[in-house]
Amino acid sequence: MKKGISKLMASLIALLVIIAAGVSVYFYTARGRGVTLTVVVVGGWNQQTVEMAAQQYEKLYPNVHFNFVVTTFSNVEEKEIVAESQGNSSSYDIFTWSPTMSGALAPYVYPLNSLINSSHYNVSDLSPALLSFGGEYYNQSAGKTQIIGLPIDTSLLVLFYRTDIFDNATYAREFQADYGVPFNPNDWTNWTEVIWADKFVTSHNITKYGMIVDDNVAHGLIDTFPAVFYWWYSRNSTLNGGTAGGLPGYNVLFTKSLQPSFAGPDGVKALETIKELISYEPSPTILTVDYSHLQSLFGTGEYAMDLAWSGFYDNFNNPSEYPAIAGKVGMALLPGGYSEAGGSFLGIAKYSKHKAQAWAFLEFLTSDKEAAKLYYEGGFPPSELGAISIISSNATHATEFGFYVKAVATAYANPPTLPITSTKLMPVINNAIYQYITGKGQAYPLLAQAASQWEQAVQS
Q1: Could you tell me the domains of the chain?
Q2: pTM for the full predicted model
Q3: Residue 150 has pLDDT above 70, yes or no
């Protein structure tokens, strides 16, 4: 009995220390011998995905248990870096991150290449675009790319549209007569056609506004700009250097020679396009459209289109959430046929003492069978091409996942994910864009100045 009390007291003391640090920790399995993997997750969608997979994994392998450390999106990067900065004293095994955090976390996670090779893991089953955005790290000093994490779910920046408007035969005939192009967003080939659609729906009083665009200077503009700019980048071999989406970490806002790619005619055209798109939503000086507005504003029924994340699809079509648009929302690739990547990644902590067991769990979670199961049971869109194919073969999900097959293959319109992105790059480019769209400067001088500051930041 004394021995049991001693263990209980030790557990309580550990729990009090954790609570004092402001971290939520819990154990899925408190009994049994074996390995316990400590996993850092972000509360919400990310936590639910990994939790569900862990529960299923424990049923198959009762000797493996999971200790979850739950934190917030804004704190997860710092928590993981601080833990691994302590070296071998770190107690974490598996980390999570969003793509924009990957560059900062790269020195603190274990490269997976050797584990992938030894286990014959099928990397080709993962979307190259998604893997490149948040799971690969270009080591400039070594001149090689390392795989540092695996995508576990998918959310892509795409074009949502109201099917009750764009499937209307009368509107389609009139639009075709006026502009000489189809009214179907899936058939648009450039951003000018989106602007024409904005003009058409507002001038005909079909909707009050055109397309919703994230113009938040604090963050959103660094997603909006590459989404539009990629149309020109992908068609200019001088900028893309023959790559689909640039070097991992640098992506489309840098050239292959690691110079900013946007300080030229193509960047100016993209910036002018964004300004015109934003003219069909409330002025950014009156209302800053941010991530949350991409759902709430479109849900009012006052907008015809939405440049937003594919993870919103089920929300938009849920009558209890958005009755004004439910059942009347479709998705299209961005004009010209591409998307921007997003989602969550898992990797192994650099000083984990259970790397083999952690890798076995990552293999399980990203298998086609498990990824498809996580979607059916939890609604988490997978990043594995095989899982997407499995789901799209189901008639119930054929439309949505037939679209995903195309979208994940083209998700190259991505901002940089360098360690300095959030601190030095994002504020500079976002401010330049915001100055232009609010009429406080000319496009080229603003972009040229931003590019100069980026060069200095990358070299320092």
Answers
A1: 2-154+342-409 (3.40.190.10), 157-341+414-459 (3.40.190.10)
A2: 0.84
A3: yes
